Amino acid sequence: MRPWRDARKLPWANRFDHPAAGWKPLGPAWPWASLAFPMGTPILKSNPKARDLRRVETGAGQGDAIGEASLLCRMKVALICSQKCPGDVILKTYDFARLVRGSGIAVVSGFHSPIEKDCLPILLRGPGPVIIVQGHRLSGSRLPREWQKVIDAGRLLLLSPFVAAVSDRRRRSESAATTPNRAKRVTAKLAAERNRFVAAISDEVLVPYAAPGSKTEALALDLLKSSKRIYTFSDRPGPLLDAGAKLIAPDFFISQSAAVPRKATLARGTS
User: Long-range contact list for 161-164, CB < 8 A, 24+ apart?
Assistant: First the structure.
């Protein structure tokens, strides 16, 4: 028995949504649309509420935001790491993500380097708050389903220091589905500005590993000169430890009194 041959015997409109053909129809009015989506493919629907961009005051300047802006009033720990990272530091960083996600501490990061990206799904699976700072202008279109769920739960804030005029935001919102946005390209310069903003809005800065001579190391040294507290998981001798970075264990921040929101007015939205 040949399933495809049996499927061809059916009327044209039902040929591709026959179970033997391995396709699932999107609806009777669009029989041909099932060609593009195999059976079981999740189709994301836009949430109009998620597309609303708000201008918020972050304490380090204004930024565009999508999600729960009150997370800016939590204790925040920045996560900034080099692209390449030793194995022992990677394991400690994973342990940190698993421990901190239930502590009430908001983890702030661009989630751009490989180790940062690996930590994001770990954090999103927990009950704790997460602030994603993007290296481009924000757009509420085509948000991942997992992000949308966490936004609806009040645990996720998307933030960008690269603000746009209201008219520009409206134009981008209307044309996001058809027009590519060049501002979404994350260049090295934008990534550096984003990481500096991540550190500026955070109470503590965790740099699990900074490769010698890297931009991450240069940023950490600049932050230390400005009296910002820097923590690391790497015990390797280098400029970071010599400049005053503190070597910690993955559970260091759990003992901090971070679960109580601080009294502040950092998340005051403006139109």
Answer: 161/58, 161/60, 161/61, 161/63, 161/133, 161/193, 161/194, 161/197, 162/64, 162/135, 162/136, 162/137, 162/190, 162/193, 163/55, 163/62, 163/63, 163/64, 163/137, 164/64, 164/137
Q: Are residues 116 and 81 in contact, defined by beta-carbon separation less than 8 angstroms?
A: yes
Cα separation, 201 vs 58, whole angstroms? 7
What does the pLDDT look like over 213-265, one tens digit per residue? Answer: 999 999 999 999 999 999 999 999 999 999 999 999 999 998 764 444 444 43
Global pTM value: 0.71
What are all long-range contacts of 248-255, with beta carbons under 8 Å and residues at least 24 apart? 249/92, 250/92, 250/93, 250/95, 250/96, 250/99, 251/95, 251/96, 251/99, 253/77, 253/96, 253/99, 253/100, 253/103, 253/105, 253/204, 253/206, 254/99, 254/100, 254/103
CA distances from 270 to 23, 34, 54, 65 (A): 47, 43, 7, 11
Q: Which residues pair with 72 in a beta bridge?
A: none
Which residue's structure tokens are 């304490």? 59
Structure token digits, residue 176: 């996001």
Structure tokens at 232: 């690391």
Q: Per residue in 179-208, pLDDT tens?
A: 344 445 667 888 889 999 999 999 999 999
Pairwise CA distance, residues 238 & 261, whole Å? 36
